Input
Amino acid sequence: MRALHRRRLLGWGGLGLAALLGVAWLARLDYPRKISTDVLDLIPAGERAPELALVRQLAAEAEARVMLFVLTDPRGAPAPLEAGRQFSAALVDSRAFTEAMPLADATNREAIGRVLFEHRFTLLFPPWLREREAAFLATRGETAAFGPWLAADTAARLGRFLEDPAAIAWQDVVPADPLLLLPGTLNRLKSGLAFLQPEPAAGSPMLVWGRIAASPLSEAGQIPVFSAIGKATAATHGRLPGLAVADTGINRFAAASRARIEREMTWLNTLSFVAVLGIALAFIRGAHRGLHLVPVVLLSILGAWVTVTVAFERLHILVFVVGSLLTGVAIDYGFYLYMQRPAYPGEDYWGKVRRLMKPLLASCFTTVAGFALLLASDLPFIRQLGAFVGAGLLCALVAAVGYFSTVGGDCLEAREFRGGRALAEPTRRKLRRGLLGAWLLAVPGLFLVTWKDDVRELEIPSPALRREDARIRALAGEVPGRTVFLTHGDSVAEARASLEQFHAWLGTAGGGGTEFTSLGALVPTSADYERARAFAREQPRFPAALGAALAGAGFEAEAFAPFSEAYRHFAAGAGGQDVAPAVRALHDALGGPASALLHIGRPFTWFVTIASRAPAASPPAGLRTVSANQLQSLNQVFRRYRQSALRLSATGLAIVGLGVFLTYGWRDGLRIFAIPCGACLGIFGLFGWLGQPLNLFHLLGAFLGVCLTHNYSIFSATSAFRREPPPASVRLSALTTAASFAVLALSGIPVVRALGLTVATMVLAALLVIELEHLRPLAERP
Amino acid sequence: MLRALLFGVMAATVAAAGADADALVTLEHRVDLADPGWRDLAGAFATRPASVVSGFEERRWFSFKKTPTVLKGIARVSAEHGLSLEYGGPEPRTVIIDTRGMLVREAGRDTAPPADARATAANIALLHLLRFDLPRLAETFQLYGERQGEAWRLAFVPIAEPVRRALGHIAVAGEGPRVRRIELRRSATQRVEILVEPPRAEGAGFTADELRRYFR
Output
């Protein structure tokens, strides 16, 4: 008794102190800063390719914060523009939105137009001149004749332009812009701009575009935003009673996903608890004593949390979701220790520990070594998961050994069932052979395994939200199948130069079938700009020549004095003619959806190109261009995670196997290791036959399953060496684990379902093999 | 051109009748919607054939051009589908105005110009004019007019000041249930005039092929 008191003093003291320190550490953490729910945080922060960081920045700062609204009156007809303006103003007043505007509101377009008009010679004249030079070269005229040709051609083009219906809208601009720089450029840009900011025709739906202030994945980007929308709707009711507002945004999906996950976690946890309790009651005598397993699991999780929060600056929530499955492994040590009867009456606790240390250490260290290998990954989530599970297992072993030293009385007893060994050896042998045959049939299915790396499987599908999202985006003119590219550089000039090369590549790689647009049409390359300045200096009499040509074509030459003045100003290189300030002014004028087309700042300046029928190939690296398809990018990251996990898991598996072979020798090690390996290969082969595409989470599930079944195998081997049947602790542990993971297989989240299904089937398969006494021959060695 | 009307309505216009139209915009010519003469005319418009095809000539005056730009084409009026103006020339195009707004059909592509208050006002005027729906026109415009036997003239002045400033006003002249001239007049040097010829064909409606080609 005195020894037990001493053990309790030491055990409770040591474990209590550790728990106290751990809880104290966790209590002082700033969780919103420490733990991210943003799927974009799965991308390595120091990504070696800057493009992904670029995509991440754009996605986080621009695309993801956009919300679209459709405003209709009580009859379902489009709400009037004034109602859209009032609604937008109310959104911005709420401070939950930084910007909001009706897409039909011409105010922003007019602001852009004013900037372009003011800087038309700096921004639009250079590309216009290049285009006209190309047209002149096609005439095979003498270089010296370019000036006169240009004047005559411009006058003729202006005459034709006046037959266009749009000419009347431009008549106030033409005297200052007879070259038609502004109408020509905007006409070319029209389809591209319409992609981001359609110009609705009369009768079009009243669409409002808004950008929220906070991340759509955070609570600040959801609850206050939805409240602001409600208030803005109420405020606009004054102008339009019965106003109906439909909206879409990433925050809607995130909020719905969060709500459903919370509901799902509640019922999953409840169901899991009921399942585990049911199994415990069915298989354990005095099930209340099973509560002794709880401190071990809690200490294991505490140790894992402390380790990763100390080791990592920022963690993704998925680490804890996936890592919570650590409990399935951690509980094994407790079961094994607590359910082992003394080898002889009066066996000392530490004597029992020494006796069981070999399988415990072999099981724990090989599993920890496998997960520790994940620390070598270049992907943060994999590293964090490796640290979480590895540290948790070490803590579980230490806690189990320490805690059960404080528990007196009898060990946890398994319930005896009448006819428990009902199967005769010949029957078991036949079943083993049948199982082997099934396995041999399943394994070729590995060649049929397909991988599906889709980041959308991280969330619960929301069909209704998706339908509404598709409806609103279609109303806003978004067309599926367009590709968005980002071309970046350290400065506007660099980015523009790369853009020029990229557009040339699009033309070539797309076989001429790719249509694209970008704000590059509004920003000249350095070469074009210098050429235009040179032309203006060398052709000071061009306005006079143009005036003469215009007069000859029936125009009032004097009416074009504003053009002559602006041309002279440009030729003289007067202040404000540089490209950089003009581009900055344009950038500042871009509001609403168009603001995503150009970014000036650090770390990069970039242009957006929108292309339809884009080439399937990625742009060459030298063009400094990347597809901004966020889903595609994240799926690529997801695929990298899977490949990394596969590579490291295979290596980890080899290490685990090596540990088993070193511990138990080649012959016995092979038999022991056949259980986890066989279960894994068999289940994956079955998935292959069933046509079930696999993803990262099937792989993580398999890794976890291998570790679990590896434990069962080693613990069962220890019994087999002693010519005993598989221990009840293994059966109990496997059944409770299978039950809890089978519950996860009912989840609405595809990846959780994948994880649950993989682990549950692997554990059950391994248990079946163990119960059929696959390891019995171990006792037969000399 | 209609698109010109559109954009242009705002700016555009008509001048020829400019002086006359200006003279019409006086208090004594304010249209009394209850006047039986105008109501009879509206009744006559209501009994017009469902489809009318006429030639038209459009003259655009710009402040920076000595002579007007002249365009010719075929106007199609459908009681149900609105107005379609088919322009000839080297770059043919069709402008369609209906209850959904304006559409420009050019080289096989349909383009809907941006909706703004000025263009919308012009469209509304033209659509209601086709039905001679003066009460509806009066919601957006001050109406001025006079009748002399079968001949009549109307002037529509936008009630909204910004629209009036950009659009000027619209003057229309006709005989009986026929529109002969439409003028979009911003100033003496900025205007669009459309002269509508007598109908070439009238009927109970356009064929399906005509509807597909000239309307939406």
Summary: Chain A has 27 helices and 13 strands. Chain A has a mean pLDDT of 82.
